[in-house]
Amino acid sequence: MTGREGHREDSERDERYQELVELAPDGILIHDGGRIVFANASAVRLAGATHRAQLVGLPIDTFLDPPYLKAVQTQLTDSVSPAGPAPPVRDTFHRLDGSEVEVEVRAIAFMDHGRPSAHLVIRDITERLAMEQAAHQVEEHLQQTHQMEAAGALAGGVAHEVNNMMQVVLGFSHFLLGDVRLPEECLGDVREIIRAADRAAVVTRQLLAFSRRAIHRPKVVDLGAAVRSTEPMVRLLLGEGRRLVVVADVAPRVLVDPGQFEQVVINLALNARDAMPADGTLTITMVETELPGDIAAAGGVAIPAGRYATLLVRDTGAGMDAATQAQIFEPFFTTKPVGHGTGLGLAATHGILTQNNGYITVASAPGQGATFTVYLPVLPDADMVERRGVPPRTGANAAQAGATVLVVDDESAVRAIAARSLEHGGFRVLQAPDGVDALELVDRHGPPQLVLTDLMMPGIGGAELARRLKERWPALPIIFMSGFSTAELRLQGAIGSEAGLIQKPFSPGRLVAAVAAVLARVDRRGPAIE
């Protein structure tokens, strides 16, 4: 090969190298330890320039100036034997217009006309970081969802057990209160026990609301009227000094459990009261809103597009930072001092709204108060017909007096309370500790007029007992006792759509009224047992 041919090949190789460098998707800058001597087209675009002359000659620190770069420069340029490639480093690239871009920089040493120089390959990682952030948020949401599901299951289980204990406390307290032998000076003590048990029952209802296992009786409601009906109670809760403003001129109709909606308003009002000074103002506003969709609600879910009845609860309290807002709907999270809150109010509110197909958001900042916004879907005109059930009777008539009720519960104290309450109500009672004994009793004595059974029992549970009894006597009325809601039990397949349910804890009077009402309906239809 002649010298001329070798020179031509070197020239072609240099041209190919220059072309590859120029067309590289990553920015490439070459500097001599201080100033830029070369920039490819991608580096020009990355810097926000229009021509490479705007970069060449500028100090490398104009664009990249972290401490690591100085170390790399020293390593690469202070020796005639340059080191190997440095590992990639994440950095911020300063553009000519003052904006910044997140980049990854890889430094490569090479000899440029006998002079050690640094070849920097600069990759814009803005899109990659956004994807990583989105993936991280999805992972966090999944973890939070799993945690909330686990916490919900635990909360529901705890509430169920506590309801059993409260059933014993309330039942025997009512018996004591009705005992004429109880000294007059002891009546106040018993009433205090009942009040304490009722407060504990409120906590279990909040646990059930959070776990979405609470009793759920939706009906068509004029939400404007519902808001106005809570006004006297909210004023009482706020106390003297704090001001309440209610604006509820619209009357959207929604499908919601009225009692649960009232609890939502009360929980939000209590939360606002505790956040406000003595002269604060709480504003409750009812409006209708057309949402475009994809608005993020508590729990990270997106609110679907549509028309919503929108309740805004705004306070003039201390407000919250972003970290607090991210946690306020979690169970047992509270910023209140020990003994001044359970941390269940907002978690229960979130659970209630989820159960009623609703959503909640919060907007706040330190020193600027907080606004909680509740969204409930407005019913179309075609869905305005409300179903009304037959109101239950409150006592046993002559035909029901002496009717036999089979009480089945593995908790002996709960079973004793139910039996004693029904006996006082004029019913004849048979008792069984589980499904096996209940079936043996029925085989010996024949079917009762009604079966009152707990659902969660070892061996043959309430649902299986009901199934076996219904196979023999399809019209036999059965009432389940449980701390869970009808909707939750049906969702789990524990009971059918026709099953009756009384939620624990119940008072003796409420149990008697529930049994009498079921027997009254059977009496109107004809005998249940042939």
Set out the fold topology.
Blueprint (H helix, E strand, L loop, with lengths): L2 H21 L3 E5 L4 E4 L1 H7 L19 H11 L11 E6 L5 E13 L2 E10 L1 H52 L6 H27 L8 E4 H7 L1 H8 L4 E5 L5 E4 L1 H18 L5 E11 L3 E2 L5 E2 L2 E10 L6 H4 L19 H11 L3 E6 L5 E8 L26 E5 L3 H13 L3 E5 L2 H11 L4 E5 L7 H11 L5 E5 L3 H6 L8 E4 L4 H18 L5
Parallel strand pairs: 7-9, 15-16, 15-17, 17-18, 18-19
Antiparallel strand pairs: 1-2, 1-5, 3-4, 4-5, 6-8, 9-12, 10-11, 12-14, 13-14
Q: Any overview of this molecule?
A:
35% of the residues are buried. The protein starts with a helix and ends in a 5-residue tail after the last helix. The C terminus is likely disordered. The chain has 15 helices and 19 strands. It has a five-stranded antiparallel β-sheet with strand order 2-1-5-4-3. The chain has a five-stranded mixed β-sheet with strand order 7-9-12-14-13, with helices on one face. Helix 4 packs antiparallel against helix 5, helix 4 packs across helix 11 and helix 11 packs across helix 15. Strand 3 and strand 4 form a beta hairpin. It has 530 residues and is of the alpha/beta class.
Brief rundown of the structure:
With 530 residues, the protein is an alpha/beta fold. It is built from 15 helices and 19 strands.
Keywords:
single chain; 530 residues; 22% strand; five-stranded antiparallel sheet; alpha/beta
How would the global form be characterised? elongated
Helix/strand structural class? alpha/beta
Distance, first to last CA: 115 Å
Q: Sheet bearing the most strands, described?
A: 5 strands, antiparallel
- CA radius of gyration is 36 Å
Average pLDDT, all residues: 77
DSSP, total strands: 19
Give the count of helical stretches. 15
